[in-house]
Task: structure prediction
Amino acid sequence: MPAWITALIAPFIVLNVVIGLVTYVTLLERKFAARMQSRIGPYRVGPHGLLQPIADAVKLMMKEDVVPTAADKTVYNLAPIVFLIPCMLIFATIPFAPGLGVADLNIGILFFLAVSSMEIVGLFMAGWGSNNKYALLSAMRAVNQIISYDLPFIFSALVPVMLAGSLKLSDIAAAQAGGAWFILYPVIGQLAFIAFMVSTLAAENRVPFDILEAESELVAGFRVEYSGMKFALIQLGEYAHIIGSSFLGSVLFLGAWAGPGPEYLGPLWMLLKAMFLFLVLTWIRWSFVRIRVDQILTLSWKFLMPATLMLLVATSFVVVWRAGGF
Amino acid sequence: MDSNGIGRSRPSSDTSPLFVIRAVAKAMWVTLFNLFRKPVTVHYPDKERAYPDRYRGLLALVYEPDTGEEACIGCRLCEFVCPPAVIKVEMLKSEKRNYAKTFSLELYACEFCELCVQVCPTDAIVMMKSFDLATADRREMLLDKDRLHAIGLQHQVSWATGNKLRDMQGPPKMARAEHGAPAAPAPAGAPAAKTAGGEA
Result:
């Protein structure tokens, strides 16, 4: 098969799998959240609510597409797509198994980190184009928060990079072969993992860092004016981003496709690990209340930033020491 | 944006790392514990919970259990006592006993206070163990006599009827008979006995 056909087919498959996954992850989250509150969750649509995501999607497609009169129409209509593209692009570099991925770049993790923070462009476009005070305030908060948490996110993701000695995601995964997962690396691994999870939560604007969607003050935040399919695109982007970060976390810390059984089960293990991380994020979401804006920024700049920076320096010392550099 | 530390503006909150870690662990434990508990949800249309004995649900008219006649004598007590005045009764005079010629109940305005059940001398109007009132047409909730009788056969009757409630709420019958006897020599006694005499 010529290379250009593969280059066309692979993204198509990955995109569709990701969209299907994201659709059903909403059901997973709703079921999981319901059980944490001693409820059952979606149950009526299909057996045990299995068709609920499809019903939701159909409902959103049927909805009237409302554009506010005072909105900046170009920006308003473009925003969901600009928001969605980076959230989908992050899946490009993730290797789901040895050699199974769209593009295993040499700078894979750099690409991921760069593209994943591009979502604030779409987010701010949504907030600005809506011409709504709540949307604008919420978008400003989001930009504020995402910029603050980008550095801890990058620093904590760089710890496995330094331990593996490569920016290529498949190399990082290969460095953890044989059960030497980076989360099991003494002290450094656990600290980096906790920092990674906290900054992932903040970068996804999830509880307890979800100040941009405060019902009492900002209604629905930056997506208050969106309805129907545009709302669905934004929602899809948010969940895709969370799933993408979960996949990244499982590559960086949980040994990617490593697991018992034959090699062709690799993608399954990868998926299970990513879902596990997603459920941990959901678990945190349903356990805490949101914290204030100043507390969020304080946690980032005064605590997480110096801590991850120190961790990075400590990791470099460890790496050099292990290599016999002293 | 003020540059306070976490929670510094609230003097009462503890910000020591141990406290924060313990609080985080406790919150995560609560949700994890609930995750593995059985859900409390009852699948309502498939399964119904048991109703309490004195459930105040749909209103209905019943027949006399021994003769099979309509129990309602059309005395209009329920019409007079009804706070939102949703009950309308017309009496039908007859030689042995009276009947209700018409009996209408506007269920959409009913406040389910149970007063009509409490005053009914013949236990004719009762409440059902059912809250199945939803309908697509408001007019279906204007219940006439036949409809009320039909509802009475459809669902389970709640415990409370007029006579049972009056027996329960009034003073015990035996005690009332004894109460009259010691009241007679009371006026010569202490002030406490005076109030007892006043009651009698």
